[in-house]
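Notebook, bench 3.
Goal today: get a predicted structure for Xanthine dehydrogenase, molybdenum binding subunit from Halomonas beimenensis so we can plan the truncation constructs. The sequence was checked against the plasmid map this morning, with no discrepancies at the termini. Length recorded as 499 residues. Pasting the sequence as submitted so the record is complete.
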Amino acid sequence: MLAGGEITVIGDCGYSPDLSDAIVDRAMFHSDNAYSLGDARVTGQRARTHKASNTAFRGFGGPQGMMIIERAMDDIARHLGEDPLTIRKRNLYRQGRDVTHYGQRVEQLGLLHDLVAQLEASSDYWGRRREIAAFNAQSPIVKKGLALTPVKFGISFTVQHLNQAGALLLVYTDGSVMINHGGTEMGQGLHTKVCQVVARELGLDLERVRISATRTDKVPNTSPTAASSGADLNGQAARDAACKLRERLFDFAAAHFDREAGGLDRESMRLEDGHLVAGIGEAERRIPWGELVQAAYMGRVSLSEKGFYATPLIHYDRATGRGRPFYYYAHGAAVAEVEVDTLSGEYRVSRADILHDVGDSLNPAIDIGQIEGGFIQGMGWLTSEELVWNDAGRLVSDGPATYKIPAFGDLPETFNVALLQGHPNSQASIYRSKAVGEPPFMLAISVWSALRDALASLADYRLSPALDTPATPERVLMAAEALRQAHDAPTTRPDHAPA
């Protein structure tokens, strides 16, 4: 079990800082990933270099921070002669070891333990580990590797004032609803989720709710659609607007309908299936949504509303390095299996199994798509997307001939993705869901760890390969050759493979 550590994060900012301050901050925040570091000191530095300036990418520094501790977990396991998963499970946050190095208490402690245990079983991790050890023992050239890595990713902007959002809701006399919010739709399904929120609060079919293009003349002072916060912030702002408008319509309906009978029962009112419903049983009264809206318009009731949301509880003191920068954590875990030709450095990802925590999902289809896409994007970042700079600081891998993103042929041959069930968000997020934009990106660290696992078999799992990222075939080959040479030297490390 980890007793402590000292970690230094150095960010290559390029010629100007851009967002490097916040990126290095998040790398420092996530240098623990899912593990209690004990007595740790984490230091961040920003380096000005002769390269073009760098800016943020999916994960915003979190992936780089997590790689530090995941590499350490692998190296510790090989030094002790244990399976890396055993070391990882032993060091997960738990009761009594539940405070991060920046002072935030980790909630839902049982969630990640449950998630890892479920994935461990569903992926048949230990059975495959035995099969791979047997395969590697009789295969001197082609080696297989296996790794299970978890993810604990903090959700919120670490700059506090950005954790706010607004929305404008308009209802027209034909019963249609238009919503405008401050988030940007870039293919991640944000507009669909916000429409779902409004439709749910107003009891309407999704087809009756539309979103107009994001415009600051409708919703001003928008925060970036980043930090995996799009649905959390804008969904809550849209919900606030819908709830306020709904209550106004309830007040109107209670006084307007059935006045001769004393009006409708305000306390029992609800919107469902395109109707205002009041009363229970035989006394139930159902008024179509369109009729309600028309009556409200004729009664000179406003059919527009603004909404606003500010994330609660978060705070952070940069001077002391202590606080609660994140509203909650999203979790996940992935098992990756690879096959490596150690004479050429070529490899393939033969299988990936993912179990991811999205709380009570707003839209499982969208969330699974985000998980699949995030994993493949992260895999590209860690394996093929190589940035090559010349001595003058110019990027020379600046086109498709030299910068390789994953293609269809790079997908795992078997790709299993599932959502964790039975663990709603402990915080009052939008319908107890969790963000899904960035966390899946870091699940791909399992591919890098699996490559290192395959190479470690060249030295009977007694040595750890020096495999930098991106783990291109060239780097894999160099790591394999270095490991073979090192294996010829005497060693006092435990002489057995992980069981």
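The mean pLDDT is 95. Residues 164-310 form a domain with the Aldehyde Oxidoreductase; domain 4 fold (CATH 3.30.365.10).
Flagging this for group meeting.
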